[in-house]
Write a structure and sequence with these properties.
By secondary structure, the chain is mainly beta. It has two domains: 18-108 and 256-286, Immunoglobulin-like; 115-231 and 290-337, no CATH class. The chain is 8% helix and 41% strand. It has three helices and 21 strands. Strands 1, 2, 3, 6, 7 and 19 form a six-stranded mixed β-sheet that branches. The protein starts with 17 loop residues before the first strand and ends in a 6-residue tail after the last strand. The mean pLDDT is 89.
Length: 343
């Protein structure tokens, strides 16, 4: 499971800007960088392909990314793992010879969270049109200590939701069942960051870091995991995300047009005045997981019964609706993944 969350951008009318998004960490996972170029407002950026992307540790070592999909560059797990205390920068050479680099960033010691708490509440959702609706949602809260006597600690949270769904034995004469696993990022349009210098708390308790709609509730009928990645980022990364968050609060979400005044840490080597969007993050990370099963929702939310409501048509239930996932779990809309080792 990858821990880099892609943040999409659109530009103002007529702008064609380089977009760099991704990063590295001390985790033994794939390290991913997305390269693209904006076209015009309302159209997603087009991938930048066949670029030479390398990671550099000061001036001593370097590692080259591969491009498994257009615009997606990967440094596979096992080939590289960032070292705490080391300084890294990204180098990009496009097909036309233009060279870009990111400002060097040091990997700081990770901050390990204590626990995740959760609740089911109504969550207010604001649309791009400015309308607000509310939904039933699982809300997630982090409990984490902060390093003592350090007033310069900056954190960012990214959360992945994963669940399983098993087919019903009634689907075939051999009563064979199949289990699929799924994963996706939650809240890709929101940013969750913290700075103990501004806020002044050294022991965060029930600090909100995300939410996920309960519906469709088949995602919670068996086993559901939340994997929270707590990144310790640099002050410059925090400042970038803070400005991005301010734009989101004004315009609706970070999917809206991003003013070019939000300075990226990536620059054109031959033309430093060129505007670049996005950020290359080098950060330490600690992962904590929350495991939920359907019985955890008792008294919090009334989940439907899989056997009686969702798949009841297999057993002749008159009031149940046909749900194809009961017999073929691969048809569910979320991305199917290989069962993780920690499941």
């Amino acid at each position: 499971m990858r821990c880099i969350q892609e943040i999409p951008f659109v530009a103002s009318e007529g702008e064609e800007l380089m977009v760099v998004n991704g990063g590295i960490s001390n985790l033994d996972e794939d390290h991913i960088v997305y390269l693209s170029r904006t076209v015009k407002y309302g159209i997603p950026p087009v991938p930048l392909t066949n670029s030479l992307v390398t990671l550099h540790e000061s001036t001593t070592s370097s590692w080259q990314f591969i491009e498994p999909f257009p615009g997606k560059y990967v440094l596979p797990s096992g080939f590289f793992k960032a070292t705490v205390g080391s300084v890294y920068y990204l180098k990009i050479v496009l097909q036309n010879g233009d060279e870009y680099r990111s400002a060097p960033e040091m990997i700081l010691p990770a901050v390990q969270p204590d626990s995740i708490s959760w609740a089911v509440n109504r969550e207010a959702i604001k649309s791009k049109d400015g309308y607000t609706t509310s939904i039933d949602a699982v809300q997630l809260f982090i409990n984490t200590p902060m390093p003592e006597n350090q007033k310069d600690t900056y954190l960012r949270w990214v959360t992945q939701s994963a669940y399983q769904f098993t087919t019903m034995p009634d689907c075939n004469p051999f009563r064979t069942v199949y289990t699929c696993h799924y994963s996706r990022f939650i809240n890709p349009g929101n940013l969750y960051i913290y700075n103990n210098q501004e806020i002044g708390e050294n022991n965060l308790r029930n600090y909100k870091i995300g939410y996920e709609a309960v519906e469709p509730d088949y995602r919670f009928m068996e086993i559901h995991y939340y994997s929270v990645y707590q990144y310790r980022i640099s002050d410059k990364a925090y400042d970038y995300y803070r400005k991005l968050d301010l734009v989101a609060n004004q315009n609706g979400s970070i999917f809206d047009a991003i003013p070019a005044s939000i300075q990226s840490n990536v620059y054109n080597v031959r033309n430093e005045s060129e505007k670049v969007l996005g950020y290359f993050q080098a950060a330490s990370a600690a992962v904590i997981r929350l495991r939920l099963v359907s019985s955890n929702f008792t008294g919090k939310y009334g989940l439907l019964s899989k056997e009686q409501n969702l798949c009841g048509w297999l057993r002749g239930a008159i009031d149940s609706k046909y749900f194809a996932g009961c017999c073929n779990c691969a048809v569910l809309p979320d991305p199917v993944i290989t069962k993780p080792d920690w499941w």
